[in-house]
Amino acid sequence: MVSSSKPILLGIIGGSGLYAMEGLEDVEEHTIETPFGKPSAPIVVGTLEGQRVAFLARHGIGHHISPSEINYRANIYALKSLGVERIVSISACGSLREDYAPGHIVIPDQLFDFTRNRPRSFFGEGFVAHVSVPEPFCPDLSEHLAAAVEATGATLHRGGTYITIEGPRFSTKAESNIFRSWGMSLIGMTTAPEAFLAREAEMCYAVMAHVTDYDVWHVNEAPVTVDMVIETLRRNLRTAQEAIRNLVKRLPAERHCSCSTALANALITDPAVIPPETRQKLGLLVDKYLAS
Predict the structure, then answer these.
(1) How far is the C-alpha of 67 from the C-alpha of 70, rounded, in Å?
(2) CB 9 within 8 A of CB 84
(3) Can you state the angle between helices 72-81 and 283-290, rounded to 10 degrees?
(4) How does pLDDT run across 100-156, given as a tens digit for each residue?
(5) Confidence band (pLDDT; 50, 70, 90) for 19?
(6) What's residue 31's pLDDT?
(7) Is the full-model pTM beyond 0.85?
(8) CB contact set of 156 (below 8 Å; sequence gap of 6+)
(9) pLDDT confidence of 227, banded at 50, 70, 90?
(10) pLDDT on residue 181
């Protein structure tokens, strides 16, 4: 294993269809145990365009982890423990709008959490925090990501609301039409609670959403299938890889957003009553605010 002390510029979480990052050099593989358990897979760190980047396969090697079974807290915590400050999620999604067509890429700016069975926070067990998320995706990172995708020549849409459902099944027509009536733009199964956990960890987070289908609401299109999703992602894979390269080349080392101080006004529990085991468990996230 090659070791490098150079900071990691970007973390990439690959979803359905993207299980590795091509072109990495000086590769290290990190198997990490977190206070929340093991992440989905070993984190691969390597050099891309002269910068260190980290890659994590969200569904595990061979895609064996269902959306509801992903250990989102361990994934985000593990990336944080490596010093990652920014995350780009590459996500397969369905479109709930006519103009967001299969094959297009969307950088959403809003998120609706419609999941039911997932731990949504690092906090609890005697330590309360209420993080602010009016803009759930980092606007600064999202803008850099949009420009990087545009440079590939792909059809890109800026903005839209991404609803995350529990899964693992696809929607019924009734559900899909209700989501459309609510003003949702995209539908997927993994962006929540991932984005909210990244904010609690004071990490920038943005999504490169690859539209694979029209969900089931579109009367002139076939209902979504796994084959449909994978085939569209396979065609878009080169674009995703190229966009990440573009992003790494243009992303400044310093962050210019408020994500890095998301917990500054979120911690409400009196430090004197935080259980020691909880305080230790969350030290990576809160030490800078609670250090005596």
Answers:
(1) 6
(2) no
(3) 60
(4) 999 999 999 999 999 999 999 999 999 999 999 999 999 999 999 999 999 999 999
(5) low
(6) 97
(7) yes
(8) 104, 105, 106, 107, 146, 149, 150
(9) confident
(10) 98
Annotation says 113 is catalytic: no
Candidate list 109, 113, 140, 215, residue with the active-site label: 215
Distance, CA of 30 to CA of 27 (rounded, Å): 10
Identify the bridge partners of residue 127 per DSSP, sorted by sequence position: 124
Assess whether 140 carries a catalytic annotation. no
Identity of the amino acid at 78? A
If pLDDT is split at 50, 70 and 90, which confidence band does 1 have?
very low
pLDDT reported for residue 220: 67
- As given in the structure block, the two tokens for residue 187 are 């539908």
Task: Report CA-CA distances (Å) from 206 to 19, 128, 159, 194, 209.
Answer: 18, 26, 11, 10, 9
Q: Residue 106: what pLDDT?
A: 98
CA distances from 18 to 13, 60, 164, 231, 261 (A): 9, 11, 19, 12, 31
Q: Which position among 26, 113, 213, 287 bears the catalytic label?
A: 213
Q: pLDDT class for 208, splitting at 50, 70, 90?
A: very high
